[in-house]
Protein backbone atom coordinates (compact mmCIF):
# COMPACT_ATOMS: atom_id res chain seq x y z
CA UNK A 1 0.00 0.00 0.00
CA UNK A 2 1.92 3.02 -1.22
CA UNK A 3 1.73 6.39 0.49
CA UNK A 4 -0.44 8.93 -1.29
CA UNK A 5 1.48 11.37 -3.40
CA UNK A 6 1.08 15.05 -2.56
CA UNK A 7 -1.64 16.83 -4.49
CA UNK A 8 -0.44 19.24 -7.19
CA UNK A 9 -0.27 22.84 -6.09
CA UNK A 10 -3.05 23.90 -8.43
CA UNK A 11 -5.51 21.64 -6.64
CA UNK A 12 -4.91 23.00 -3.13
CA UNK A 13 -7.82 25.02 -1.76
CA UNK A 14 -6.94 28.67 -1.27
CA UNK A 15 -9.56 29.75 1.22
CA UNK A 16 -7.69 31.52 4.06
CA UNK A 17 -7.58 29.41 7.21
CA UNK A 18 -9.09 32.15 9.38
CA UNK A 19 -12.06 32.50 7.01
CA UNK A 20 -12.45 28.73 6.87
CA UNK A 21 -12.56 28.43 10.67
CA UNK A 22 -15.02 31.33 10.91
CA UNK A 23 -17.24 29.62 8.32
CA UNK A 24 -17.16 26.35 10.26
CA UNK A 25 -18.06 28.15 13.50
CA UNK A 26 -20.90 30.00 11.73
CA UNK A 27 -22.25 26.63 10.60
CA UNK A 28 -21.84 24.77 13.90
CA UNK A 29 -23.00 27.24 16.55
CA UNK A 30 -26.36 28.75 15.48
CA UNK A 31 -29.33 26.75 16.66
CA UNK A 32 -27.54 24.90 19.45
CA UNK A 33 -29.03 27.16 22.13
CA UNK A 34 -32.05 29.38 22.43
CA UNK A 35 -34.98 27.01 22.01
CA UNK A 36 -36.93 24.34 23.87
CA UNK A 37 -36.68 20.61 23.07
CA UNK A 38 -38.38 20.02 19.72
CA UNK A 39 -40.54 17.12 18.71
CA UNK A 40 -39.68 14.37 17.62
CA UNK A 41 -36.23 13.32 18.80
CA UNK A 42 -35.25 16.11 21.17
CA UNK A 43 -38.17 15.59 23.52
CA UNK A 44 -37.51 11.99 24.47
CA UNK A 45 -33.71 12.37 24.30
CA UNK A 46 -33.73 15.26 26.72
CA UNK A 47 -36.14 13.37 28.95
CA UNK A 48 -33.48 10.65 29.23
CA UNK A 49 -30.74 13.20 29.90
CA UNK A 50 -32.84 14.94 32.54
CA UNK A 51 -33.60 11.65 34.29
CA UNK A 52 -29.91 10.77 34.38
CA UNK A 53 -29.11 14.11 35.97
CA UNK A 54 -31.82 13.74 38.59
CA UNK A 55 -31.45 10.05 39.41
CA UNK A 56 -27.72 9.50 38.96
CA UNK A 57 -28.53 6.31 37.03
CA UNK A 58 -26.01 6.22 34.16
CA UNK A 59 -26.69 2.62 33.14
CA UNK A 60 -30.39 2.37 32.26
CA UNK A 61 -31.79 5.23 30.15
CA UNK A 62 -35.29 6.32 31.20
CA UNK A 63 -37.72 8.38 29.09
CA UNK A 64 -40.75 9.80 30.92
CA UNK A 65 -39.69 7.72 33.91
CA UNK A 66 -39.77 4.40 32.01
CA UNK A 67 -36.76 2.35 30.76
CA UNK A 68 -35.96 3.26 27.17
CA UNK A 69 -33.58 0.75 25.63
CA UNK A 70 -33.51 1.87 22.01
CA UNK A 71 -29.90 3.11 22.05
CA UNK A 72 -26.75 2.94 24.21
CA UNK A 73 -26.12 5.95 26.44
CA UNK A 74 -23.06 7.78 25.03
CA UNK A 75 -24.99 10.80 23.78
CA UNK A 76 -26.98 10.96 27.02
CA UNK A 77 -23.82 10.83 29.12
CA UNK A 78 -22.10 13.66 27.24
CA UNK A 79 -25.28 15.75 27.13
CA UNK A 80 -25.87 15.31 30.87
CA UNK A 81 -22.31 16.35 31.71
CA UNK A 82 -22.54 19.43 29.49
CA UNK A 83 -25.99 20.36 30.80
CA UNK A 84 -24.72 20.17 34.37
CA UNK A 85 -21.49 22.01 33.56
CA UNK A 86 -23.31 24.85 31.77
CA UNK A 87 -26.30 25.05 34.12
CA UNK A 88 -25.14 28.34 35.62
CA UNK A 89 -25.56 30.15 32.31
CA UNK A 90 -27.84 28.00 30.15
CA UNK A 91 -31.11 26.12 30.55
CA UNK A 92 -30.54 22.40 30.94
CA UNK A 93 -31.91 21.57 27.49
CA UNK A 94 -29.59 24.10 25.82
CA UNK A 95 -26.59 22.75 27.68
CA UNK A 96 -27.53 19.23 26.66
CA UNK A 97 -27.79 20.24 23.00
CA UNK A 98 -24.16 21.40 23.07
CA UNK A 99 -23.29 17.69 22.92
CA UNK A 100 -24.30 17.76 19.26
CA UNK A 101 -21.96 20.68 18.62
CA UNK A 102 -19.11 18.86 20.36
CA UNK A 103 -19.64 15.69 18.33
CA UNK A 104 -19.93 17.66 15.08
CA UNK A 105 -16.75 19.63 15.75
CA UNK A 106 -14.95 16.32 16.37
CA UNK A 107 -16.42 14.93 13.14
CA UNK A 108 -15.17 17.88 11.10
CA UNK A 109 -11.71 17.54 12.66
CA UNK A 110 -11.33 13.86 11.79
CA UNK A 111 -12.86 14.17 8.32
CA UNK A 112 -10.32 16.91 7.63
CA UNK A 113 -7.43 14.88 9.05
CA UNK A 114 -8.43 11.81 7.03
CA UNK A 115 -8.73 13.71 3.73
CA UNK A 116 -5.39 15.41 4.31
CA UNK A 117 -3.76 12.07 5.09
CA UNK A 118 -5.20 10.35 2.01
CA UNK A 119 -4.95 13.13 -0.57
CA UNK A 120 -2.44 15.69 0.65
CA UNK A 121 -2.33 19.19 2.13
CA UNK A 122 -5.32 21.42 1.43
CA UNK A 123 -7.79 18.61 0.93
CA UNK A 124 -8.78 18.52 4.59
CA UNK A 125 -10.51 21.90 4.25
CA UNK A 126 -12.13 20.72 1.03
CA UNK A 127 -13.60 17.61 2.69
CA UNK A 128 -15.01 19.62 5.58
CA UNK A 129 -16.64 22.11 3.22
CA UNK A 130 -18.20 19.26 1.25
CA UNK A 131 -19.56 17.75 4.46
CA UNK A 132 -20.95 21.12 5.55
CA UNK A 133 -22.74 21.42 2.21
CA UNK A 134 -24.58 18.10 2.49
CA UNK A 135 -28.30 18.77 2.63
CA UNK A 136 -28.93 15.82 4.94
CA UNK A 137 -26.59 17.22 7.58
CA UNK A 138 -27.91 20.77 7.99
CA UNK A 139 -30.81 20.19 10.37
CA UNK A 140 -29.73 16.97 12.04
CA UNK A 141 -26.33 18.38 13.02
CA UNK A 142 -27.97 21.05 15.21
CA UNK A 143 -30.50 19.11 17.28
CA UNK A 144 -30.27 16.55 20.05
CA UNK A 145 -29.84 13.37 18.02
CA UNK A 146 -28.13 10.14 19.03
CA UNK A 147 -27.23 9.41 15.40
CA UNK A 148 -24.71 12.29 15.40
CA UNK A 149 -22.04 10.46 17.49
CA UNK A 150 -22.51 7.53 15.10
CA UNK A 151 -21.18 9.85 12.37
CA UNK A 152 -18.39 10.94 14.71
CA UNK A 153 -17.33 7.36 15.39
CA UNK A 154 -17.23 6.58 11.68
CA UNK A 155 -15.10 9.67 11.01
CA UNK A 156 -12.62 8.75 13.77
CA UNK A 157 -12.39 5.17 12.51
CA UNK A 158 -11.75 6.45 8.98
CA UNK A 159 -8.69 8.30 10.26
CA UNK A 160 -7.51 5.06 11.86
CA UNK A 161 -7.73 3.29 8.50
CA UNK A 162 -5.78 6.13 6.87
CA UNK A 163 -2.92 5.61 9.37
CA UNK A 164 -2.97 1.81 9.34
CA UNK A 165 -0.10 1.36 6.83
CA UNK A 166 2.55 3.45 8.56
CA UNK A 167 1.52 3.99 12.21
CA UNK A 168 -0.16 0.85 13.54
CA UNK A 169 -0.28 1.94 17.18
CA UNK A 170 -1.95 5.29 16.46
CA UNK A 171 -4.13 3.68 13.78
CA UNK A 172 -5.32 0.96 16.14
CA UNK A 173 -6.10 3.42 18.92
CA UNK A 174 -8.10 5.73 16.64
CA UNK A 175 -9.87 2.85 14.94
CA UNK A 176 -10.77 1.28 18.29
CA UNK A 177 -12.02 4.62 19.56
CA UNK A 178 -14.16 5.09 16.45
CA UNK A 179 -15.66 1.62 16.84
CA UNK A 180 -16.38 2.30 20.50
CA UNK A 181 -17.99 5.69 19.92
CA UNK A 182 -20.11 4.27 17.12
CA UNK A 183 -21.19 1.34 19.30
CA UNK A 184 -22.16 3.45 22.32
CA UNK A 185 -24.01 5.83 20.00
CA UNK A 186 -26.24 3.35 18.19
CA UNK A 187 -25.33 -0.26 18.89
CA UNK A 188 -24.05 -2.87 16.47
CA UNK A 189 -24.46 -0.95 13.19
CA UNK A 190 -21.18 1.00 13.06
CA UNK A 191 -18.95 -1.75 14.57
CA UNK A 192 -20.52 -4.27 12.20
CA UNK A 193 -19.93 -2.14 9.10
CA UNK A 194 -16.37 -1.28 10.15
CA UNK A 195 -15.63 -4.92 10.91
CA UNK A 196 -16.86 -6.09 7.51
CA UNK A 197 -14.91 -3.27 5.84
CA UNK A 198 -11.72 -4.20 7.72
CA UNK A 199 -11.98 -7.82 6.53
CA UNK A 200 -13.11 -6.99 2.99
CA UNK A 201 -10.14 -4.73 2.22
CA UNK A 202 -7.43 -7.44 2.39
CA UNK A 203 -9.80 -9.91 0.72
CA UNK A 204 -10.21 -7.60 -2.27
CA UNK A 205 -6.89 -5.74 -2.49
CA UNK A 206 -3.36 -7.02 -1.98
CA UNK A 207 -2.09 -3.71 -0.54
CA UNK A 208 -3.97 -4.43 2.67
CA UNK A 209 -2.46 -7.91 3.17
CA UNK A 210 0.38 -6.68 5.34
CA UNK A 211 1.47 -7.40 8.90
CA UNK A 212 1.33 -3.71 9.72
CA UNK A 213 -2.37 -3.58 8.84
CA UNK A 214 -3.07 -6.76 10.81
CA UNK A 215 -1.23 -5.27 13.78
CA UNK A 216 -3.39 -2.15 13.51
CA UNK A 217 -6.54 -4.27 13.63
CA UNK A 218 -5.27 -6.19 16.64
CA UNK A 219 -4.58 -2.98 18.54
CA UNK A 220 -7.98 -1.64 17.47
CA UNK A 221 -9.73 -4.69 18.90
CA UNK A 222 -8.02 -4.24 22.26
CA UNK A 223 -8.75 -0.49 22.27
CA UNK A 224 -12.42 -1.08 21.44
CA UNK A 225 -13.07 -3.78 24.06
CA UNK A 226 -13.74 -1.42 27.01
CA UNK A 227 -16.27 0.49 24.88
CA UNK A 228 -17.90 -2.74 23.72
CA UNK A 229 -18.09 -4.48 27.10
CA UNK A 230 -18.38 -2.15 30.09
CA UNK A 231 -21.87 -0.74 29.52
CA UNK A 232 -23.47 -3.95 28.16
CA UNK A 233 -22.09 -5.95 31.11
CA UNK A 234 -23.30 -3.30 33.56
CA UNK A 235 -26.73 -3.35 31.89
CA UNK A 236 -26.93 -7.16 32.00
CA UNK A 237 -25.95 -7.22 35.68
CA UNK A 238 -28.62 -4.62 36.39
CA UNK A 239 -31.38 -6.31 34.41
CA UNK A 240 -31.15 -9.25 32.02
CA UNK A 241 -34.63 -8.49 30.53
CA UNK A 242 -33.57 -4.91 29.71
CA UNK A 243 -30.38 -6.23 28.14
CA UNK A 244 -32.45 -8.58 25.98
CA UNK A 245 -34.76 -5.72 25.02
CA UNK A 246 -31.79 -3.61 23.92
CA UNK A 247 -29.81 -6.33 22.16
CA UNK A 248 -32.52 -8.50 20.58
CA UNK A 249 -35.37 -6.08 20.02
CA UNK A 250 -33.51 -2.86 19.21
CA UNK A 251 -30.46 -4.26 17.41
CA UNK A 252 -31.14 -7.69 15.94
CA UNK A 253 -34.91 -7.17 15.72
CA UNK A 254 -34.70 -3.80 13.98
CA UNK A 255 -32.27 -5.21 11.41
CA UNK A 256 -34.03 -8.51 10.73
CA UNK A 257 -37.51 -7.07 11.14
CA UNK A 258 -39.30 -9.00 13.88
CA UNK A 259 -39.54 -5.92 16.15
CA UNK A 260 -40.26 -3.26 13.51
CA UNK A 261 -44.05 -3.44 13.86
CA UNK A 262 -43.69 -2.65 17.55
CA UNK A 263 -40.82 -0.13 17.42
CA UNK A 264 -41.52 1.60 14.10
CA UNK A 265 -39.13 3.12 11.49
CA UNK A 266 -39.82 0.44 8.88
CA UNK A 267 -37.84 0.32 5.64
CA UNK A 268 -39.08 -0.03 2.08
CA UNK A 269 -37.11 -0.91 -1.09
CA UNK A 270 -37.18 2.67 -2.39
CA UNK A 271 -36.37 4.58 0.79
CA UNK A 272 -32.63 4.92 0.25
CA UNK A 273 -32.72 5.21 -3.58
CA UNK A 274 -35.07 8.17 -3.11
CA UNK A 275 -33.36 9.64 -0.04
CA UNK A 276 -29.66 9.33 -0.80
CA UNK A 277 -29.47 11.63 -3.89
CA UNK A 278 -30.65 14.68 -1.95
CA UNK A 279 -29.43 13.61 1.50
CA UNK A 280 -25.81 13.18 0.31
CA UNK A 281 -25.76 16.08 -2.19
CA UNK A 282 -23.21 17.39 -3.23
CA UNK A 283 -20.87 14.80 -1.63
CA UNK A 284 -22.27 11.87 -3.63
CA UNK A 285 -21.79 13.28 -7.17
CA UNK A 286 -18.38 14.73 -6.23
CA UNK A 287 -17.25 11.38 -4.80
CA UNK A 288 -18.45 9.69 -8.00
CA UNK A 289 -16.47 12.22 -10.02
CA UNK A 290 -13.31 11.44 -8.03
CA UNK A 291 -13.75 7.71 -8.57
CA UNK A 292 -14.41 8.17 -12.29
CA UNK A 293 -11.39 10.39 -12.84
CA UNK A 294 -9.10 8.06 -10.87
CA UNK A 295 -10.67 4.76 -11.92
CA UNK A 296 -7.34 3.56 -13.29
CA UNK A 297 -5.80 4.02 -9.83
CA UNK A 298 -8.26 1.87 -7.87
CA UNK A 299 -5.98 -1.17 -7.84
CA UNK A 300 -3.18 0.80 -6.21
CA UNK A 301 -4.89 3.66 -4.29
CA UNK A 302 -5.63 2.80 -0.65
CA UNK A 303 -7.80 5.91 -0.34
CA UNK A 304 -10.09 4.89 -3.19
CA UNK A 305 -10.21 1.31 -1.98
CA UNK A 306 -11.22 2.23 1.55
CA UNK A 307 -13.75 4.82 0.41
CA UNK A 308 -15.46 2.52 -2.05
CA UNK A 309 -15.57 -0.48 0.29
CA UNK A 310 -16.70 1.47 3.36
CA UNK A 311 -19.45 3.26 1.45
CA UNK A 312 -20.62 0.11 -0.35
CA UNK A 313 -20.75 -1.98 2.83
CA UNK A 314 -22.63 0.69 4.75
CA UNK A 315 -25.13 1.30 1.96
CA UNK A 316 -25.61 -2.45 1.52
CA UNK A 317 -26.44 -2.84 5.21
CA UNK A 318 -28.96 0.00 5.04
CA UNK A 319 -30.62 -1.47 1.95
CA UNK A 320 -31.18 -4.89 3.54
CA UNK A 321 -32.10 -3.60 6.99
CA UNK A 322 -35.76 -3.78 8.00
CA UNK A 323 -35.51 -0.30 9.59
CA UNK A 324 -34.73 3.05 7.98
CA UNK A 325 -34.47 6.66 9.04
CA UNK A 326 -32.54 9.56 7.53
CA UNK A 327 -30.22 9.70 10.52
CA UNK A 328 -29.01 6.16 9.91
CA UNK A 329 -27.28 7.42 6.76
CA UNK A 330 -25.16 10.09 8.45
CA UNK A 331 -21.95 7.96 8.66
CA UNK A 332 -21.94 7.58 4.87
CA UNK A 333 -21.45 11.34 4.56
CA UNK A 334 -18.04 11.16 6.25
CA UNK A 335 -16.75 8.63 3.71
CA UNK A 336 -18.28 10.48 0.76
CA UNK A 337 -16.84 13.83 1.88
CA UNK A 338 -13.32 12.37 1.99
CA UNK A 339 -13.78 10.77 -1.43
CA UNK A 340 -15.16 14.05 -2.79
CA UNK A 341 -12.23 16.22 -1.66
CA UNK A 342 -10.09 15.83 -4.84
CA UNK A 343 -13.06 16.61 -7.10
CA UNK A 344 -13.91 19.65 -4.96
CA UNK A 345 -10.40 21.02 -5.44
CA UNK A 346 -10.18 20.31 -9.19
CA UNK A 347 -13.67 21.01 -10.50
CA UNK A 348 -13.58 21.99 -14.20
CA UNK A 349 -13.48 25.76 -14.57
CA UNK A 350 -16.72 25.99 -16.54
CA UNK A 351 -18.63 23.94 -13.96
CA UNK A 352 -16.91 25.84 -11.17
CA UNK A 353 -17.98 29.16 -12.64
CA UNK A 354 -21.58 28.06 -13.19
CA UNK A 355 -21.84 26.60 -9.70
CA UNK A 356 -20.51 29.86 -8.32
CA UNK A 357 -23.13 31.95 -10.11
CA UNK A 358 -26.02 29.63 -9.28
CA UNK A 359 -24.98 29.34 -5.62
CA UNK A 360 -24.60 33.07 -5.13
CA UNK A 361 -27.96 33.92 -6.68
CA UNK A 362 -29.89 31.04 -5.14
CA UNK A 363 -28.70 31.64 -1.59
CA UNK A 364 -29.04 35.40 -1.93
CA UNK A 365 -32.69 34.94 -2.96
CA UNK A 366 -33.22 32.46 -0.13
CA UNK A 367 -31.68 34.89 2.37
CA UNK A 368 -33.93 37.62 0.99
CA UNK A 369 -36.96 35.39 1.52
CA UNK A 370 -35.99 34.68 5.15
CA UNK A 371 -35.48 38.38 5.81
CA UNK A 372 -38.73 39.34 4.02
CA UNK A 373 -40.86 36.97 6.10
CA UNK A 374 -39.24 38.21 9.29
CA UNK A 375 -39.81 41.88 8.35
CA UNK A 376 -43.44 41.24 7.37
CA UNK A 377 -44.08 39.51 10.69
CA UNK A 378 -42.51 42.37 12.60
CA UNK A 379 -44.56 44.98 10.70
CA UNK A 380 -47.94 43.22 10.54
CA UNK A 381 -47.84 41.28 13.79
CA UNK A 382 -48.59 37.95 12.13
CA UNK A 383 -47.16 35.56 9.57
CA UNK A 384 -47.82 36.02 5.84
CA UNK A 385 -50.94 34.11 4.84
CA UNK A 386 -49.04 31.59 2.75
CA UNK A 387 -50.31 28.05 3.12
CA UNK A 388 -46.88 26.40 2.87
CA UNK A 389 -45.77 28.37 5.94
CA UNK A 390 -48.85 28.31 8.14
CA UNK A 391 -49.48 24.61 7.53
CA UNK A 392 -47.05 23.75 10.31
CA UNK A 393 -46.20 27.10 11.94
CA UNK A 394 -48.54 29.39 13.92
CA UNK A 395 -49.97 32.01 11.57
CA UNK A 396 -50.96 34.37 14.40
CA UNK A 397 -47.51 34.38 16.01
CA UNK A 398 -46.12 37.80 16.91
CA UNK A 399 -42.42 37.80 16.05
CA UNK A 400 -40.31 39.25 18.90
CA UNK A 401 -37.22 41.38 18.36
CA UNK A 402 -34.00 39.97 19.79
CA UNK A 403 -31.19 42.45 19.31
CA UNK A 404 -28.33 39.93 19.47
CA UNK A 405 -29.96 37.61 16.95
CA UNK A 406 -30.72 40.56 14.66
CA UNK A 407 -27.14 41.86 14.77
CA UNK A 408 -25.67 38.40 14.10
CA UNK A 409 -28.04 37.87 11.17
CA UNK A 410 -27.29 41.30 9.76
CA UNK A 411 -23.52 40.87 10.02
CA UNK A 412 -23.71 37.44 8.38
CA UNK A 413 -25.79 38.84 5.52
CA UNK A 414 -23.39 41.74 4.97
CA UNK A 415 -20.44 39.32 4.98
CA UNK A 416 -22.22 37.21 2.35
CA UNK A 417 -22.86 40.26 0.14
CA UNK A 418 -19.24 41.36 0.50
CA UNK A 419 -18.11 37.85 -0.48
CA UNK A 420 -19.64 38.39 -3.93
CA UNK A 421 -16.54 40.33 -4.88
CA UNK A 422 -14.15 37.74 -3.43
CA UNK A 423 -15.72 34.36 -4.24
CA UNK A 424 -15.03 34.62 -8.01
CA UNK A 425 -11.31 35.02 -7.20
CA UNK A 426 -11.12 31.61 -5.46
CA UNK A 427 -10.14 28.65 -7.53
CA UNK A 428 -12.72 26.55 -5.68
CA UNK A 429 -15.28 29.34 -5.73
CA UNK A 430 -18.34 27.30 -6.76
CA UNK A 431 -18.47 24.79 -3.95
CA UNK A 432 -17.02 27.20 -1.40
CA UNK A 433 -19.91 29.49 -2.26
CA UNK A 434 -22.34 26.60 -1.78
CA UNK A 435 -20.96 25.86 1.70
CA UNK A 436 -21.09 29.56 2.60
CA UNK A 437 -24.62 29.90 1.24
CA UNK A 438 -25.92 26.93 3.22
CA UNK A 439 -24.23 28.33 6.31
CA UNK A 440 -25.86 31.73 5.80
CA UNK A 441 -29.30 30.19 5.25
CA UNK A 442 -29.06 28.06 8.39
CA UNK A 443 -27.73 31.00 10.42
CA UNK A 444 -30.65 33.24 9.37
CA UNK A 445 -33.12 30.46 10.11
CA UNK A 446 -31.54 29.86 13.53
CA UNK A 447 -31.56 33.56 14.47
CA UNK A 448 -34.46 35.38 12.78
CA UNK A 449 -36.91 32.47 12.55
CA UNK A 450 -35.92 30.56 15.69
CA UNK A 451 -38.61 31.98 18.05
CA UNK A 452 -41.31 31.23 15.47
CA UNK A 453 -40.10 27.68 14.97
CA UNK A 454 -39.86 27.21 18.72
CA UNK A 455 -43.49 28.28 19.18
CA UNK A 456 -44.60 25.60 16.73
CA UNK A 457 -42.35 22.74 17.83
CA UNK A 458 -42.15 23.21 21.62
CA UNK A 459 -44.51 21.81 24.23
CA UNK A 460 -43.75 24.46 26.86
CA UNK A 461 -46.63 26.75 25.91
CA UNK A 462 -49.33 24.11 25.86
CA UNK A 463 -48.35 22.41 29.12
CA UNK A 464 -47.71 25.60 31.09
CA UNK A 465 -51.17 26.72 29.92
CA UNK A 466 -52.66 23.44 31.15
CA UNK A 467 -50.89 23.30 34.52
CA UNK A 468 -53.08 25.87 36.37
CA UNK A 469 -56.16 23.82 35.45
CA UNK A 470 -54.89 20.81 37.39
CA UNK A 471 -56.54 20.42 40.82
CA UNK A 472 -54.45 21.38 43.81
CA UNK A 473 -54.73 17.86 45.21
CA UNK A 474 -55.10 14.69 43.21
CA UNK A 475 -54.13 11.06 43.55
CA UNK A 476 -53.23 10.02 40.02
CA UNK A 477 -53.27 11.45 36.51
CA UNK A 478 -54.08 8.99 33.75
CA UNK A 479 -53.50 9.51 30.05
CA UNK A 480 -54.88 8.06 26.85
CA UNK A 481 -52.97 8.37 23.57
CA UNK A 482 -50.13 10.38 25.15
CA UNK A 483 -47.06 9.79 22.98
CA UNK A 484 -43.45 9.67 24.19
CA UNK A 485 -42.69 13.28 23.17
CA UNK A 486 -45.66 14.80 25.00
CA UNK A 487 -45.21 12.51 27.99
CA UNK A 488 -41.54 13.46 28.30
CA UNK A 489 -42.20 17.21 28.17
CA UNK A 490 -45.15 17.01 30.58
CA UNK A 491 -42.77 15.50 33.12
CA UNK A 492 -40.07 18.12 32.39
CA UNK A 493 -42.22 21.24 32.43
CA UNK A 494 -44.85 20.29 35.01
CA UNK A 495 -43.26 17.46 36.97
CA UNK A 496 -46.28 15.31 36.09
CA UNK A 497 -45.96 11.60 35.29
CA UNK A 498 -49.10 9.92 34.03
CA UNK A 499 -50.15 6.30 33.99
CA UNK A 500 -50.97 5.11 30.48
CA UNK A 501 -54.47 3.62 30.49
CA UNK A 502 -53.58 1.49 27.48
CA UNK A 503 -50.94 -0.30 29.56
CA UNK A 504 -52.45 -0.04 33.03
CA UNK A 505 -56.27 0.02 32.83
CA UNK A 506 -56.92 -1.00 36.44
CA UNK A 507 -55.18 1.76 38.41
CA UNK A 508 -57.72 4.33 39.73
CA UNK A 509 -57.26 7.95 38.71
CA UNK A 510 -58.90 11.31 39.38
CA UNK A 511 -57.48 13.35 36.46
CA UNK A 512 -57.52 12.28 32.82
CA UNK A 513 -55.43 13.77 29.98
CA UNK A 514 -56.23 12.69 26.44
CA UNK A 515 -54.11 13.28 23.35
CA UNK A 516 -55.78 12.88 19.96
CA UNK A 517 -56.67 14.48 16.65
CA UNK A 518 -58.63 17.71 16.29
CA UNK A 519 -60.90 16.21 13.64
CA UNK A 520 -61.92 13.19 15.69
CA UNK A 521 -61.98 14.74 19.17
CA UNK A 522 -61.12 12.82 22.35
CA UNK A 523 -61.20 9.08 21.81
CA UNK A 524 -62.85 8.54 25.18
CA UNK A 525 -65.03 10.78 27.33
CA UNK A 526 -65.62 9.59 30.91
CA UNK A 527 -69.32 9.56 31.79
CA UNK A 528 -70.20 12.44 34.08
CA UNK A 529 -66.74 14.00 33.98
CA UNK A 530 -66.25 17.58 32.87
CA UNK A 531 -63.73 18.95 30.43
CA UNK A 532 -61.79 21.74 32.14
CA UNK A 533 -59.23 22.52 29.45
CA UNK A 534 -58.19 21.76 25.92
CA UNK A 535 -55.29 23.06 23.85
CA UNK A 536 -52.50 22.40 21.38
CA UNK A 537 -49.15 23.69 20.32
CA UNK A 538 -49.35 26.93 18.36
CA UNK A 539 -50.00 26.27 14.69
CA UNK A 540 -50.63 22.54 15.24
CA UNK A 541 -53.90 21.76 13.47
CA UNK A 542 -53.74 18.00 14.04
CA UNK A 543 -52.54 17.09 17.54
CA UNK A 544 -54.75 18.22 20.45
CA UNK A 545 -55.06 17.68 24.21
CA UNK A 546 -58.11 17.48 26.51
CA UNK A 547 -58.13 17.52 30.31
CA UNK A 548 -61.02 15.98 32.28
CA UNK A 549 -61.91 16.09 35.98
CA UNK A 550 -64.64 14.16 37.82
CA UNK A 551 -67.71 15.90 39.29
CA UNK A 552 -67.21 17.39 42.72
CA UNK A 553 -69.24 14.53 44.23
CA UNK A 554 -68.40 11.79 41.85
CA UNK A 555 -69.15 8.10 42.36
CA UNK A 556 -66.27 5.58 42.40
CA UNK A 557 -63.61 6.37 39.81
CA UNK A 558 -64.37 5.12 36.29
CA UNK A 559 -62.31 2.80 34.19
CA UNK A 560 -61.46 3.28 30.54
CA UNK A 561 -63.61 1.51 28.00
Q: What do you see in this structure?
A:
The protein is mainly α and 561 residues long. It has three domains: 232 residues, no CATH class; 107 residues, no CATH class; 90 residues. The longest helix has 32 residues. α2 packs across α22. The protein contains 22 helices and seven strands. α22 links the parallel β3 and β4. A five-stranded mixed sheet has the order 4-3-5-7-6, covered by helices on one side. A two-stranded antiparallel sheet has the order 1-2.
Give the integer mean of the pLDDT values: 90
Strand order of the largest sheet: 4-3-5-7-6
Q: List segments where confidence is low: pLDDT < 50 over at least 5 consecutive residues.
A: 1-13, 553-561
Structural class: mainly alpha
Radius of gyration: 26 Å
Q: What count of domains describes the coordinates? A: 3
β-strand amount:
5-15%
Major beta sheet summary:
5 strands, mixed
What distance separates the N and C termini? 70 Å
Helical fraction equals: 55-70%
The overall strand count is: 7
Number of helices: 22
Amino acid sequence: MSSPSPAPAASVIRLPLAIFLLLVAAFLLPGLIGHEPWKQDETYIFSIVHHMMQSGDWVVPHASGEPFMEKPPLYYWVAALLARGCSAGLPLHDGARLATGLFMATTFLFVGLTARRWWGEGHGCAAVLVLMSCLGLVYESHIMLTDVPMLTGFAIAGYGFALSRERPLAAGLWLGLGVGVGFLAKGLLVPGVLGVTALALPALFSQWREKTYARSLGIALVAALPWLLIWPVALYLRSAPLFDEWFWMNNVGRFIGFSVNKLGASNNPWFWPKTLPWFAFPALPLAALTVWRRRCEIRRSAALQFGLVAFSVYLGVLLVSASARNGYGLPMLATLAVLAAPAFATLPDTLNRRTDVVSRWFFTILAGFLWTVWILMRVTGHAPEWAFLTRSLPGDYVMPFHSVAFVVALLATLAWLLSWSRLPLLKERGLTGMAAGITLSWLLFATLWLPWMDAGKSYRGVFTEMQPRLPEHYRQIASIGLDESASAMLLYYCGVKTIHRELDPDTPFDVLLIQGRVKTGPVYTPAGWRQVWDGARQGDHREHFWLFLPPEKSPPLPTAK
